[in-house]
Amino acid sequence: MAGANIKLSKWIRLAPIPVTALPRHPDIHKNTEEGQAPPTEGSSELALFLEEVLTQAQSFVDGLDSESPRKDGVWQSKSSKSFTMKSHWKDRSRPPTTSVPIEILACHLSTNTLENIPGYSERWDSKEEDWFARRSIHENISRAGSATFQEFKFGIKDDHSKHEAEYTDDLYQWKHVLQYPLDGVSVPNYSELEMYIVEMCHEIPFPLKNRMFPELVITANASETSFIVVQLPLEPKSVASLVGSSHSGDSSLVVGAYASIERVRQLKDGKLEWTMAVTSDAKGNLPGALQKMSLPGAIAKDVGLYLNWINVNSAERKDEDIGMEPRKSYNHSANPKPRVRSQYGSQQPQ
């Protein structure tokens, strides 16, 4: 499947956003110099920001559904992968395996394309971006190898960062830095909104240093049968100035940048479409070409990681429904003990 022309956003970019460019928040404003904070106040500014980001995010992933010739700024199908779960049902009438096809797509955005985005080049230096996406279709059913819409919503939208740390192998620690109060904030076409700043720590194979990604996370329902999660990279030094930050000044970590959009929606036939688009830069000495090679496989792997996790963490499922004997459990600690190789200190390769 080729992609369609996509509308580009000044916010959903790989260039980190300084926290002073975000809507007003007491903890951000008191840590910035006078005059740097945004000029407008109140819930209206926050609502406009949320509407702009969410609308642009929806438009970006909508481009995964249609067909058009390949050109700069267009999604292009790259490969297909699959996730297979082997089950151990007592009832032999149930399927022994469940296989989920995963389509992998790519989109290259040139420097020239980024410079033409209104408002983008005024704030950040333009830099070309390589986006990768996955798209998978799932039965809307609570059983091994699949999940209902409510199970996807529970695991991916609700407590997004906490749950992501539980089912992602290399994500060893996360820190909630700042929460935006959204009481009284109304955004047309969206509900159950949440917006917060978080620091996510990922383990990188030896001898490289672990990575930390400061992120702005936005989650929302787009309808009764659709939700979206947007993660935007934040400028490290500005996050380090916030009271809740605990990793931004850690010399044992390399600070990277990561932007993503994740959406689950119910299709006309009742099945569920799970789409994720991502671009990242792990920084340090990790070659960009190697990062581009590994990212498609990494996002495809997340499908299996999540389906295995929800299989044993969903309140909807009984023991006989999960296809495993015995039932396993996962560590629900929001901040498990970090696996940081402190013995290498600041001399550890990046």
Topology:
Blueprint: E1 2-5, H1 26-29, H2 43-62, E2 74-86, E3 97-109, H3 111-115, E4 129-138, H4 149-157, H5 160-167, E5 171-179, E6 191-202, E7 210-223, E8 226-233, H6 236-240, E9 253-255, E10 257-266, E11 272-281, H7 288-313
Parallel strand pairs: 7-9
Antiparallel strand pairs: 1-2, 2-3, 3-4, 4-11, 5-6, 6-7, 7-8, 8-10, 10-11
CA-to-CA gap between the ends?
37 Å
Total beta strands: 11
Overall mean pLDDT stands at: 79
| Overall 3D form | globular
Q: What value does the Rg take, in angstroms?
A: 20 Å
From N to C, what is the helix and strand string? EHHEEHEHHEEEEHEEEH
Give the structural class.
Answer: alpha+beta
The low-pLDDT segments are: 31-41, 66-70, 88-92, 320-348
Largest sheet: 11 strands, mixed
How much of the residues is beta strand, in percent? 25-35%
Tally of individual helices: 7
DSSP helix fraction: 10-25%
